[in-house]
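Example complex used in Figure S2.
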Amino acid sequence: MSQPLVVGIIGLGTVGSAVASLLVRNQGVIKARAGREIVLKKAIVRDVSKAQAKLAELGIALSVSTRIEDLLEDAEIDVVIELMGGIDLAYDIAQKVLRANKAFVTANKAMLAYHRYDIQPLAKDLAIGFEASVCGGIPIIRVLKDGLSANHIVGIRGILNGTSNYILTQMLQHQQSFSDALKDAQALGYAESDPTLDISGGDAGHKLLILASLAYGINALPEEILIEGIEGITPDDMEFANEFGYVIKLLGIAKKTDSCIELRVHPAMISKNAMIAKVDGVMNGISVIGDCVGESMYYGAGAGGEATASSVISDLISFAQGKNSVMLGFKQPIESENTQSFTLKSIDDIYSRYYIRLYAHDKPGVLGQISQILGNHNISIKAFLQKETADKRIAKLLFSTHHNYEREIKDALNELEKLDFVTQKPYKIRIEDELENL
Ligand code: NAP
Ligand code: HSE
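Predicted assembly (438 residues):
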């Protein structure tokens, strides 16, 4: 009879408590697939009485304490799962777990976004699992590490954050306000403990960096890439998008061009007919283009306790089966056959179509001056809508452009903002209408 795989867990919140209950509820199938029992022995939290009350509600008997050493010093524990979140303390714990010669599982994309390349050398032959760190229940890490490993990855485009997709869907389909939709996402357990990370694009950025490491071996940090969130989107933008055949989604995009990797997260207008446009609510969707396989698309729950626990436990099962492949799927930078690694594309060099929203005093000559400034920056208008606002003196001007470099749009908008008849900071959304041409 094989020895059980003995596990300790840090964090019994939305994901941790779902892991504890799923290990009990699905123990038969988990044991059958793992080839041995997986036993959760101890949990670490900050508030023991809160955790005990939750465990009692779930009908789970489990030893709980506040001392991480209770896991590190327990020779029976083979694996520690970190489900507490945060960056510095979580990284410190990851190092301690690996130094204590225990395998490590985490759903913590924020910590991995900063420290994924620091952890690998410490692990040596120990297993590290992070399937739950990107897109909750979708096994996208294994797709890139294993399933598509024969491909050069041409590009990845995905809805990587469940909370922001839920908010955008509620605003568009149910006319819910931004703040009410966010409150619902928090109550449903989708949001981060600091939901700013969800709505500012930060969480999607963390996930994109993990995917880019698997696809290209690029070691970029969140501060080095373009990350914008959904905070500025208004019903006006959604209405314009709808009128011109688009929906607005928060996208994470990774593309390979020559020796550069382009990485960016931002709201984008995409054609209503694109597959990814139909990914609504808390669902995530990722399209990956490989040079041999072409495009493949992955869809599923991007957040929530049970969906994420499904991925956490899949890592445990894989460890129980004796699999402990290298964390990022490679030992040295990939895509660098001529010893030259990829560099990160400059944000200014991003080339896209744009939607621009302006509010301006409705008086003669205004449109002329605006189009003159756009023209001076090489920006050509593709579509234009002018609408009245509640204040009859102010007009809402909505444009879409042909392709431009990011620096051209940035400079033009800075100039427009300074005009005395422009009443609000101009707002832009990139238009990604060539999904097939990643
Ligand atoms: P959560 O509901 O806020 O739970 C966090 C848990 O960690 C709580 O039990 C908390 O204990 C414990 N904890 C926090 N700081 C601690 C510390 N210093 N020492 C010991 N325990 C500590 O968070 P969650 O939603 O489950 O998320 C956990 C991790 O999974 C995060 O990294 C998150 O990004 C990631 N994740 C979440 C989802 C999701 O849908 N929620 C999906 C994918 C990945 P107390 O309650 O006692 O404070
Ligand atoms: N807060 C994250 C989201 C959890 O909404 O996608 C899943 O990573």
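Residues 136, 161-163, 190-192, 198, 203, 302-303 surround L-homoserine (ligand 2) (CB under 6 Å). The radius of gyration is 24 Å.
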